[in-house]
Every structure is written in C-alpha cells, then in structure tokens.
Write a structure and sequence with these properties.
- The complex is a heterodimer of chains A (516) and B (48).
- Chain A has 516 residues and is mostly helical.
- Chain A has a single domain, classed as Up-down Bundle (Sodium/glucose cotransporter), CATH 1.20.1730.10.
- Chain A is built from 22 helices and no strands.
- In chain A, helix 3 packs across helix 8.
- The longest helix of chain A is centred in the middle third of the chain and has 50 residues.
- The mean pLDDT of chain A is 82.
- The mean pLDDT of chain B is 88.
- Helices cover 83% and strands 0% of the residues of chain B.
- Chain B has 48 residues and is an all-alpha fold.
- The radius of gyration of chain B is 21 Å and the shape is rod-shaped.
- The chains are: A mainly alpha (516), B mainly alpha (48).
- At the A-B interface, helix 5, helix 9 and helix 12 of A face helix 1 and helix 2 of B.
C-alpha cells in the first residue's frame, strides 16, 4: 500500500480509538448515549453541527454542480455559508430550553411532546427514517468512490471498510463519539480543502485567471443564471437554491438534535461565530474547484470525482492523502450522525413508544445500537447494488426532510397557536410537495425550486391546520413562555407600564417643580 | 473586477462579508442577553 493509503489507515484508527474511548461513558444512561448528557461546548457544537451538515455532497456534489452550471452554483453556497448563523440564532436557545423542559431526547419525540399527539411521532418517524436512509446511502456511495480512488481497492471493498469503521465507532461510542470525531473531522476538512484550494487557485492564476479561462470556454459560465442562461429570470429557482441550505438545516433531525445537546443556552453565541468563520473558509472552495475542473479536467467522465482527480493530478503524495481523508471525514461525520439519529428515532420513537414502554435504559441502548447496525448494513447493500448520483440523492433527501420538519420546528418555539393538526399538515404537505415537484420535474414548467414550493405548502399547512383541532394545553403554553425567557417582563408589559405610569410621573414632576 | 461581469460580482462577492458581519452582531447581541439573564438570575437568587 502506498504512503497515502497508510496515512489514511492511521486516520481511521484514530477515529476508532475515539469511539471506543467514549463507549464506557456512553453506556451510563439513555440521555448520555443519545445526547451526550447535554454537555457539548461551543467549539464542539459548532464543528459537529457544520461537519454533520457538510456531507460528502460538499466534496462530490458541489463541484459536480459547479462543473455543470458554472457560477450559478454559488447561489447554493451563499445560502450554505449563512445556514449555521440562521439555524443557531433562530432555533438555538429556544429549542435547547424547550427540549429540556419537555424532557425530549430525540427530535421526533420533541415534536410529539410539543404538539401533544402520537400521530405526529408516527408520521415524523416514517418521513425521517425513509429520507435519512436515502441521505445516508448518498454518503456511503461517496465514501466508496473516495476510498476506492485513494487505496486502489474495488468500490465494493472500499465501501465495506469505510462504513465498517463508521458503524463501529457510532455503535460503541454513541453521541459523544460522533460529536468529538466530528470535531477532528472538521479540522481535517478545513485543512484539506483550503490547502488544495490555495494551490489550485495559484495554479490557475487566481479568480481572474479562472474567470478569463471560463469566459474563453463559454461566457455564460460567468452568469448568475447558469450555463446557457438555463435559469434566466427564474428568481423562484434562485431563491429556492439559497433557501434550501440557509434555512433547510432547521428541518434536518440530525442537525436539529445539536441544539438539544448543548451544554447551556450560553453555548449558542460562541457556536454562531465559530461556525460562521468556518463556513466562509470552507464552503465556497469546493464549488470553485468544480469550476477549475471545467478548465483543467474538461473531459472527466464523472464530475463528482473532480476534487479527487485534481488532488492526484496537481498534488500527488501526502497532500493528496490529506485531502482524501478530508473527503472521508465529511462523509463519515454526516453518515455517523444520520445513523445515530435513525437509531435514536427507531429505538426511542418506535420501539419504546409503541412496542416496549417499560424498556430499561440498557435495553434502549442495545436496541439503538442494533438499529444503527441494521441501518448501516442495509445502506451498504443498497449503495453497492443501486448507486445513484450523490448530488441528486442529497438534494432530494435534504429538500424533503427540510420541507417536512423546518416549519414544525420553527413554529414549535415561535407560535403559541401551532398545534398537532398544523404540524401534521406541514409535515405531510411539505414532504409530498417536494417529492411531487422533484419527480415530475415541475421546476422547469413553474420556475419554482422544489424546496421553495414545499416550504410554501408546509407554511400554509401549519397556518391553516392550526385553526382546527384542540389548542395547545396550559403545560405546553407555560413551557413555551419559559423557553422564550430572557426578560422577566415582556416588552408589551414594559410598554403598558410606561404608559400607565406616565400621568403619575408627570404629576410627581409637576409637584416637585411647584415646590421648588 | 476579478474577471467577473459586474452583475455577477455584486450578487456574489459581498456575501462572505455580510455573513461574518451578521454573525458578529448576533454574537454581541446574545452576549448582552446572556449577561442580562445572569444578572436577573443572580437578583432572583438573592431575593430568595
């Protein structure tokens, strides 16, 4: 095996060690295994949130998209670069408080407790399991492709080795292992991608050199509307492209759970700034590398392999190994979080809720581990026999999950009136619209991005649905108010008291002036 | 400007700066909120 292969194997060994290190701590209780005992600080929260969100898509799907559309693909990056800021500042504190008040350990359980209906949990579990599974399959395919390029092993063998490592440390170490390996992976991702970005940048003559070369191939690559002006004037497509990754994260169960596992609400501010800086360094580079691929690798058969090809073409040796470790990091940090989440949902939201209500913490952890193992094995089989493109699968699964859960999570902490009927309408309406829009190719005829269409339907579903059915109980309304707490008195109260006291204050001033 | 058409430049280039600026504002706003909360908690504990 070459030197770069050896480096990569060492890297996998480190990840396994972290998993096994946390395996003893994680078995202490269900909360410890599923949420790491709500103990994560700002740096780990920021990194685990971002590396979970930035999947194999960033190294494979994003360059392929830029290779296809040119600068138009940057609309997706713009939304992505601000996603964590929006996600943390909108949901962060309130969801951390609310989930603790409700005693929820999984994001789907949280929805059931907030909206007070088991039907929410059933529908939420079905949607999340199906689409998280699609999402994890995309990660497995990316892992197989990257590792095969690095080691020279066959795609199938690479898939088996890479995924086995992920499954072992996730099953053994639980949430803490996933979070702390994400931290290491996040550092490697930035190092790898910024390293190759800087080298490729100077190789091509900077942004000016890239743009001049792109213009010579086809000037429409430089347009904001895509190659051949494919989306000219379609602001519905542009808005959807920005929104899917800027607000879409608030609908992903495996990302939302990061809010629930923070040490305290004070963790949010540090996480916002760390993730924002990390994003600006990391997110734009893979897209730019995709465009560099148009110039340096115009005949590449699989555009999803642009970064891998560039690594070996321009920078062979140890540096290429670092980059490929970064790709695997991105894949693994997302796949482990999704597997962890799917395991939590199946064990807590399906097994404990509907099959064995009196399951002991030990049984729960065992069931969760078995579910992760099963999900991983089925995912590997699907990835071997039916490998679709990472790019298409991620966009579809991400969009559908975002459309199903974004509105319910936001409404859960911002709307007093939001109830279970609204939540069900938002989940079913949003997911169905995205599926129909994508499968029937309605974006071409309507000029509306599937994510935007799903978001509008989901929002309408919540607004209209919440007018029917029973209202949230007093307990939920109390928890809702407590989750908002910052000021002892509400702004309205402050305003009213100022107005009420104004005449009194005037009289006092007058009295004092008269008696001077 | 960096070889971009004017329209592309102004739509794309400012965003990283906008996001970092926004994150900084949110950071200081949350810091202020946290300090206020801490103060209120302290006052409440003293009153108890």
């Amino acid at each position: 095996m070459s030197m770069d292969g050896v480096i990569f194997i060492i890297y996998l060994g480190i990840l396994l060690t972290i998993g096994l290190w946390f395996s003893r701590r994680s078995s202490a209780s269900t909360e410890q295994y599923l949420l790491g005992g709500r103990s994560l600080g700002p740096a780990v929260t920021a990194m685990t949130m971002q590396t979970t969100a930035m999947s194999g898509f960033m190294f494979m799907g994003a360059p392929a998209m830029a290779f296809k559309y040119g600068w138009y693909a940057i609309w997706y990056a713009i939304g992505d670069a601000g996603g964590s800021i929006i996600n943390l500042s909108v949901l962060g504190k309130r969801m951390r408080r609310m989930s603790e008040l409700l005693g929820a350990l999984s994001p789907i359980e949280y929805l059931e407790k907030r909206f007070e209906s088991p039907s929410v949990r059933v529908v939420g579990s079905i949607i999340s399991i199906v689409f998280l599974f699609g999402y994890v399959c995309a990660q497995f395919i990316a892992a197989g492709k990257a590792m095969s390029a690095l080691t020279g092993f066959t795609y199938e063998l690479s898939l088996l080795i890479g995924i086995s490592v992920i499954i072992i440390y996730t099953v053994a170490g639980g949430y803490l292992a996933v979070a702390y390996t994400s931290f290491v992976q996040g550092l490697i991702m930035v190092l790898g991608v910024v390293g190759i970005g800087v080298l490729a940048y100077f190789h091509i003559g900077g942004l000016t050199g890239l743009n001049v070369a792109l213009k010579a191939v086809d000037p429409t690559y430089l347009s904001i509307w895509g190659k051949d002006l494919a989306y000219y004037g379609q602001w519905g497509m542009v808005l959807g492209a920005i929104l899917i990754y800027s607000i879409g994260y608030m609908g992903l169960p495996h990302v939302v759970v990061r809010h629930m596992s923070m040490k305290s609400t004070k963790t949010v501010k540090g996480a916002v700034i760390i993730s924002a800086l990390w994003n600006q360094f990391f997110i734009f580079v893979p897209y730019i590398l995709g465009m560099i691929g148009i110039i340096l690798l115009p005949t590449i058969a699989d555009p999803e392999m642009i970064i891998t090809e560039l690594a070996y073409t321009l920078f062979p040796g140890i540096f290429a190994a670092l980059l490929l470790s970064a790709i695997m990091s991105a894949v693994m940090s997302t796949a482990d979080s999704i597997l962890m989440q799917a395991g939590s949902i199946l064990s807590r939201d399906v097994y404990q809720r509907f099959i064995n209500k009196d399951a002991s913490p030990k049984t729960m952890i065992l069931v969760s581990r078995l579910c992760i193992l099963l999900g991983g094995v089925v995912g590997v089989v699907v990835a071997i026999y039916e490998p679709p493109s990472v790019f298409a699968l991620v966009l579809f699964a991400f969009g559908t999950l975002g459309n199903a859960f974004l509105v319910p999570y936001v409404a859960s902490v911002y709307s007093r009136k939001a109830n279970y009927i609204g939540c069900l309408c938002a989940m079913i309406g949003g997911a169905t619209t995205n599926i129909i829009w994508t499968s029937m190719g309605l974006e071409t005829s309507t000029g509306l991005h599937p994510f935007l269409a799903g978001l509008l339907v989901s929002l309408l579903g919540m607004l209209i649905g919440s007018r029917f059915g029973r209202k949230p109980s007093d307990e939920i309304l109390t928890a809702f108010e407590q989750s908002r707490k910052k000021r002892v008195f509400s702004k309205e109260f402050d305003r009213n008291i100022t107005r009420d006291l104004a005449p009194e204050a005037n009289n006092v001033s007058k009295f004092l002036a008269d008696n001077k | 400007m960096l070889g971009f058409p004017v329209e592309t430049f102004w739509w794309f280039v400012p965003w990283p700066f906008i996001w970092v600026g926004l994150a900084t504002i949110i950071y200081f706003k949350m810091k202020k909120d946290d300090e206020l909360e801490e103060k209120m908690e302290k006052d409440q504990n003293q009153n108890l």
